[in-house]
Amino acid sequence: MDETILEFDDNRHLIELCGAHDRHLTAIEDGFKVQIVRRGNVLSVHGDAQSRALAAAALRALYTRLEEGMSVEAGDVDAAIRMVTSDNQLELFKGERVEIRTRKRKVEPRSPGQKDYVRALYEHELVLGVGPAGTGKTYLAVAAGISMYLEGKIEKIILSRPAVEAGERLGFLPGDMKEKIDPYLRPLYDALNDLWGGAKIEKLIEEGRVEVAPLAFMRGRTLTNAFVVLDEAQNTTEMQMRMFLTRLGENSRMVVTGDPTQTDLPRGVRSGLREAMKVLNGVDGVATIQLTDSDVVRHPLVGRIIRAYAHHDSGK
Description:
This protein folds into 2 domains: 3-87, Ribosomal Protein S8, Chain: A, domain 1; 100-313, Rossmann fold (3-Layer(aba) Sandwich), CATH 3.40.50. 43% of the residues lie in helices and 16% in strands. It is built from 11 helices and 11 strands. It has a 6-stranded parallel sheet. A 3-stranded antiparallel sheet has the order 1-3-2, covered by helices on one side. Helix 9 links the parallel strand 9 and strand 10. Helix 2 runs parallel beside helix 4. The radius of gyration is 22 Å and the shape is globular. The two termini are 39 Å apart.
């Protein structure tokens, strides 16, 4: 069997590259259908020519990451496998690595679809991010909003979700209005806390710099100098979606995320997200990014679950 020899100068970096019990090497072996043998500071990659080339590219890119002072975690290895498989190189956006810098961490795209999505977040005033759970639609949008706020490009971050059952059923829940609504908005708070930190977020909310509110609270407003995210948009009605989109004010950006296959709307009510995708197709300043199960970054099993359901729904 042919082999490709890779030699690495720094043994400490090589240990991190291999991972605990060589788990990173195992992931690369499984991802590219190769065998990797380690001897000292040398890795020998065995397999067919194309597979060896892709695996070697991933290993070199991950080692370069370590040389630049960054860590290599399981998610980074998965990202390397996805990106190299896509276009045989890890450099994003014309040869430069892209990082969304937030208060607590740096966030990088981990799939070709995520790469296109992040590009769209920075290049378009309105982005429709559509795809299944686990593809990073909301997380990346919130990260981009935080990054733009820290850079002074916008003055406020507004995160919203439709509370589908708020019409009649919220009144039967215990507590005041905030306590009734917060469970619907919890995923947005989770993203903010992970990227920025709870104490800082609480202060910014008090100052009005960050707002997390149900969609109904957007009516009648003009959102200027803001980064606005509407999450779970498949649960908006056509009228709600039109209302939200027309809130866009000067020097603002909007991101609308959702999965049209998982609507919780009453039977017979059409999704505003589906309508928006049709109506806004080709409109200047609007980008629609379709993420798929291959962009799922939560857990490998999530992607397999999504594919299994898609196979079942197709009747095959």
